[in-house]
């Protein structure tokens, strides 16, 4: 199980405008080569399903996820419902600041293969963060920066709310080394 986290500072950025750009997943393939496709199916005003196809190392990762938008909190949470990860859940949050806004990307994932997790998961976390940096720069411009001395601690589980209690139980069981069914 791996946690990937990224903090971006966006001085002068409008938090609501930044959030609307970040949740426009359909633009991501234009911004970074590894994101092959993202297909969106709206299920309500605040919920949608997304299907992702992403190049990772010498292969392709595919998954679908349930996404929930909370515009009041400037937060999008996601949870894989099918795909190549054993567990994939996370959030994008935009937090207003006196200078503009901060943007947080947090994700918890597990490929479900313990024999390779110490090799593959750190690489996946690095690639995830690098691609999100490029996406933010493409969406918001070069005033976005990523202060290296202020990045969140990845050894601690993120505090975002998952979409349902079953997943929270699954993540907690996996973190304790239990086998989830």
UniProtKB/TrEMBL annotation:
Q: What organism is the protein native to?
A: Streptomyces cacaoi
A Pfam family it matches: Polyketide_cyc
Q: What is the name of this protein? A: Coenzyme Q-binding protein COQ10 START domain-containing protein
Domain (Coenzyme Q-binding protein COQ10 START) spans 15-131
| InterPro entries membership | COQ10_START, START-like_dom_sf
The record's listing under Gene3D superfamilies reads: 3.30.530.20
